Amino acid sequence: MSQIDEAALRSVVTEVLSKLQSSRAAVVTPSIQSKPGRHGVFDDAASAGRAARGGFEQLKKTGWAGRAKVVEIVKRMCAENAVRWGTIEFEETKIGRLEHKIEKLQGIRNVLGTEYLVPHGMSGDAGITMDESAPWGVIGAISPVTHSIPTIAGNIVNMVAAGNAVVVNPHPGGAACAAVAIDEFNEAIKAELGIENLVCTVEKPSLESFNELCASEDVNMLCITGGPAVVDAAMKTGKRAICAGPGNPPVVVDDCSALDFDKVAKDIIIGGGYDNNLLCIGEKQVFVVGNSYKPFMDSMKRAGAVLLTKAQLEAIKKEVFDVKDGGGGCSHAVLNRAYVGADAAKLAAIAGLKVDPKTEMLIAETADDDLFVIEEQMMPLLPIVRSSTFDDAVRMAKASEHGYKHSAMVHTMNVSRMTQMGREMDTTIFVKNGPCVAGLGLGGEGYISFSIATTTGEGITTPRTFTRFRRCTLVDQLNII
């Protein structure tokens, strides 16, 4: 190449680079204004989606350091505001227990952030290749009424760590508290990073705003933590969807003399009684094998559970379930939502029974086809089913879980039986000799997330769940071995 040609080439390259830099500088961030004085809160899903797109473009410019800073802000604010936000959520939703809503916010510190996104490198004679986790863009998130702010906060940590912005369509029953937290998150993020509308929400969410969010061109991915109908609708949009489906987690208590039944009872009440049984992973029904029935029931009562009579159970059942078409033929029981997450004392009062307001769990012996066994009722009332053998207990447990592949627990010191049940249940979370929450790192090893993608198979979500893999290859160079 001659000197003249090289100079001309340099000139062309310089001009092209200059134009590219000018083009990048000219990227216009969508100027979408949220409600006056409320950062990230919008009247409609389309505006929220466009604003979040602007937030995503701003986040990209801050690099990994910006993502890590947002994660730090969200975790810090959840800890600092746990009591105030937990109280706001409790007063709005009127379900569960205040102390557990506060604990869930304090637990956001255990959600995985940027540290989980480790690239995978390959090096050899042909050069080097790197697989990296890239963001999708804007993620539309549906949050439940059972854990409104904790689910949103956990999703922000996972999703922003992965480089995404978030737009939320919360459950209408928890929309006001969601708006409070999102407003304050955005205000803090703007103050420290200058980013506006990184997390957006719809002030008055509805089925229409959900459909609008799903259809928005600004939304690249969906994350659903909701009921079967919403999950089904999201999976039909054609967009990548991470879906947490229903669950009805069973527990099997083995006939095992080596078991500490007082610990078993404590574990089951910790998990099943948490936030009045609102956890989707929470113990919902118990199958007790052979001679373990009496020591187990004695331990449950020592641990504070109140045993209902058959008549008391039936009285409660008539109130908390509505059976259409008179209860015969193809009739189907529908849960009375007024009692979801209700206190044990409120349930007991239906049957004319007065119990200590601090009571965490009601228990009652039932058949394996009882409504309390086969329906996910999210109340602190555990049906206890006798079983003659371990095989039979696992069979009934599997039937009660309905193939959701969500969560299951077993208490036994027999490793072969642990293995047997784990294989039979095929659930996303399987806990041995501990409360359900041990499966989310609370008393067991691991990490927490409030979005457990059972339907689409990603399991307990992490930042990696919200990325797409990209590969970069350099041929023949930089391998220095």
Automatic annotation (TrEMBL):
<protein>
    <submittedName>
        <fullName>Aldehyde dehydrogenase family protein</fullName>
    </submittedName>
</protein>
<dbReference type="InterPro" id="IPR015590">
    <property type="entry name" value="Aldehyde_DH_dom"/>
</dbReference>
<keyword id="KW-0520">NAD</keyword>
<dbReference type="GO" id="GO:0008774">
    <property type="term" value="F:acetaldehyde dehydrogenase (acetylating) activity"/>
</dbReference>
<dbReference type="InterPro" id="IPR012408">
    <property type="entry name" value="Acetald_propionald_DH-rel"/>
</dbReference>
<feature type="domain" description="Aldehyde dehydrogenase">
    <location>
        <begin position="43"/>
        <end position="303"/>
    </location>
</feature>
<dbReference type="InterPro" id="IPR016163">
    <property type="entry name" value="Ald_DH_C"/>
</dbReference>
<dbReference type="InterPro" id="IPR016161">
    <property type="entry name" value="Ald_DH/histidinol_DH"/>
</dbReference>
<dbReference type="InterPro" id="IPR016162">
    <property type="entry name" value="Ald_DH_N"/>
</dbReference>
<keyword id="KW-0560">Oxidoreductase</keyword>
<dbReference type="Pfam" id="PF00171">
    <property type="entry name" value="Aldedh"/>
</dbReference>
